[in-house]
What we know:
Blueprint: H1 10-26, H2 35-42, H3 46-49, H4 51-63, H5 67-74, H6 76-95, H7 100-114, H8 117-127, H9 134-162, H10 167-170, H11 172-186, H12 201-220, H13 230-252, H14 266-295, H15 301-308, H16 313-325, H17 331-349, H18 358-384, H19 392-429, H20 438-447, H21 452-490, H22 501-506
Amino acid sequence: MSTHYQPPSQALSTIGLSLAIFMQALDSTIANVSLPAIAGNLGVSSDQSTWVITSFAVCQAISLPLTGFLSRRFGQVPLFIWCTLLFVLTSFLCGIAQSMGMLIVFRALQGAVAGPMFPITQSLLISVYPPEKRSMALSLMAMVAVVAPITGPILGGWITDNYSWPWIFFINLPIGIFACMVVSNQMKGRIEKTERPRIDYVGLITLIIGVGALQVVLDKGNDDDWFDSTFIIITSIVSAISIAVFLIWELTDKDPIVDLKLFRHRNFRFGTLALVLSFAAYFSINLLLPQWLQSSLGYTATWAGFAASPLGIMPVLLTLFVGRYAMRFDLRMVASVAFVVMGITCFLRSGFNLDIDFNHVAMMQLLMGLGVALFFMPVTVILLSDLKPNEIASGGGLATFARTLGGSLAASLTTFIWGHRAVLHHAHLTESITPYNPTAQAAISQLGRGNEATGASIINGMITQQGLQISFNELFYALGWIFMSLVFVIWLAKPPFSASSGAATAGH
């Protein structure tokens, strides 16, 4: 638990720190609705454009475990200032990128400096409140962390439609600079204890190579025809060896960069599994829905954002309520309700078609928001409940690392499966359209008004849309069962689940 520090203005400190979290969380989703515009502007496929999301997420996941080391080495306030300033700089570089390659590199750098921002900002925010008011600070931070990713698609869509996509990155400049100035001024009297801890270089290098290579395999596999490609085979072998070395080294090293021994605790093991799978499924929905609304239903980026935005209403209304009253119930029951609600919304979406109206899409998002409001806090408290006090910080960092990595891998897999299944369905749907089928030929002639080439093109477009829709429905059906299966996973945890001070500080 952070020691209490009284800044000149508690309100100003809170605003400065909250803005930094808002900016960092906003950037995890603001590009989602802008992917079609970015892909079109930079002349790449929609599959390649998802690297804008995944490069940020995977580098954020890799840098997260370094937070403890960096804060001990440089101090919490200097680390916050440097991370925020570098986030501003990389945001500017993303905005001026002239090619997809440049944008992906700058987004990767942006993700790397974003990694330590959430845990370090959380620690600083807790430190400016006395112990009896820290739950209020954490509730405020939880609200910011939930609202920002939901605001992202709306703001990103509006900026993309009315200005141009680089402004989704330029918007960070005034926010980040203001946050730095406020926090620097308010925290200048804070005493920082620094040390020179040993860094686990083998763990760090194998982590970067293993996770980075795995991400490349997932993102490039579809384009390169998977294991028919020598590049994919070599990269997969490199990833497998690096991850194996990483796991063995971390389990045997005295001071590992990622403390995998924490998984010996039952509640941490099953709680983290539930967190990773639920967040991966949730991340998949947030990536898939805006792209589907634009590519299949013809929504603008702004309207895609509006359709997704009701997701945030319930978390905003219920965050303080859940924080105050959830501990009166069995937290496994609270989490189970959340998973069932989210599963049901996925099953309902699996029945969507190309004629679905805006209200239906928005109502599903509103209903899913109830599940989102209920699942973060209970699952986090459960996974930290059986850790020792000196393991809480490492446990919170490891769970966040696993959750972020899960979201990154889910983004790649979702995009691949959606496209791959759409191609298969397209092939099945076109089987009956042959020169020997008089019904098909009549339809082609009618659509093309006598021009067979035009008619065939129109038919092909319609079949492509249907293939994408069937694939979309299959994905949501599968996501529904993932959420339902998590009910069984969370009940493998055993009470008591105490909302210890450590559990509170780990956040989500």
